[in-house]
Amino acid sequence: MVLSSRVGRVLATVASVVIAALGTAATAGAAEKAIWGPAQLPDGSSAFALYRELGVDTLQMAIVWSDIAPVRPASPRDPADPAYRWPAQVAAEVAGAHNAGLRVAMLVTGTPNWANGGRGPLRVPDNRRDFADFMTAAARRYPSVHRWMIWGEPNRDDRFLPNVKRDPVGPRAYATLLDAAYGALKQRSASNKVIGGMTWTGGTVNPRDFVRWMRLPNGKPPRLDWFGHNPFPFRFPSLAARPVGGFRDISDLDRFSREIRLAYGRRVPLWLSEYTIQSERGSDLFATFVSEPDQARYVTAGYRIADELGRRATGLGWLSLIDEPPTPTSANIGLMTYGLRRKPSYAAFARAPSARFAPTVSVRRLAGSAELSLKVVLRPRLAGLMRVALRRGTRVVDHVRALGRIGVARTVRLHARRTGALYTVVVSTARGATVRKRLRLR
């Protein structure tokens, strides 16, 4: 296609403006590779070298409000209040993660008896302000932590009360707790990401209904940044699978994302905190299990889905690094045995895409070109094959393959077919989360 110089200048300007508005961060919209696991291995050595080898972006851990505050603090927003019993192990793990270049996502759960009339850690606090005050203290205690998961699987009656089957009482109680935590954490730091929902595949109230019923007294949904979900699989992961009732496992994430968007009237990214499948046998935790080679296949398929979701998923976390200590009923959910033998799933997890290894990508209209040509500059974080495609919808308009070297910029050229269309430049590299850049040529 031959263009006048004036039209060419317009195209160059529009493309540059659009891409600049989208930003140049390589990991924008990339799903982080997260994991639940210890800071110390059973043999006493540090686990952080393994996390780096595996390409982990985020380490997940938990604190329990009822353990940390067994009596009511006089100054509940002050982490130095004498009533607080902050676990030394958590502080060490947070520091270790920070030193290893890992982010931390912290789960907070468990109501103290003094906050709900002695009705146990599962029952919602009588005054949501008490929980909000604790969240302020926790954020001050762990200032390097900026991902906060509010409760774990509150759609289950063995995790959160009140909960009644086919009833909105649980989701509504949780909504007020989440909204109070959001206000406290954002007041402490605008950088804090508040992860709400934290639903499970099934539950006393299924995820589909929990999202629909999660409302404040004014009828609005509670504030959050990301919607947390634990999409444990009950079949081999595939977005082509049909949903089963209100269950939402990893194969239903495209549908679940749409349901959350409908509830909020906007796109809310998914934080997929826990995903796993046992190897070899069932346990007290889960009945479902597969062989060790098939566990590796589940790892690969699950992380491929998270990568395909693009901006709809902010991360996927594997549960966990190591199997439980061996007993007749222990859970083999780790990437390694308790004796530290690496299972096939270890290598599969290492190969899975991570934001840590996503390449830096910039796209510009090729100056002086008489065609609709784009200049794509890539800087990979690992050596290997790079795949670059220009898509219009689901159709590949042009594509290039190139070998990349660590930190060395490589330039490739793509050719568009027509103006007035929305295009996406899609870049895939070894072990790196897929990078997508959208632009429109007019």
Quick summary:
The protein is an alpha/beta fold. It is 27% helix and 25% strand.
Give an overview of the whole structure.
By secondary structure, the chain is an alpha/beta fold. The chain is 27% helix and 25% strand. The strands form four sheets. Strands 1-2-3-4-5-6-7-10 form an eight-stranded parallel beta barrel, surrounded by four helices. A four-stranded antiparallel β-sheet has the order 14-13-16-17. Strands 11-12-15 form a three-stranded antiparallel β-sheet. Helix 5 packs parallel to helix 6, helix 7 packs parallel to helix 8 and helix 9 (292-308) runs parallel beside helix 10 (344-351). The longest helix is centred in the middle third of the chain and has 20 residues, at 169-188. The two termini are 14 Å apart. Residues 1-28 have low confidence and may be disordered.
- Main beta-sheet strand count, sense and barrel state: 8 strands, parallel, barrel
Task: State the order of secondary-structure elements, H for helix, E for strand.
Answer: HEHEHHEHEHEHEHEEEHEHEEEEEEE
The dominant shape is globular
Query: Can you give the mean pLDDT?
Result: 91
Report the uncertain regions: 1-28
- With helices defined by DSSP (H or I, 4 residues minimum), what is the helix count? 10
Cα-based radius of gyration, to the nearest Å: 23 Å
Strand content: 15-25%
The rounded distance between the terminal residues' Cα atoms is 14 Å
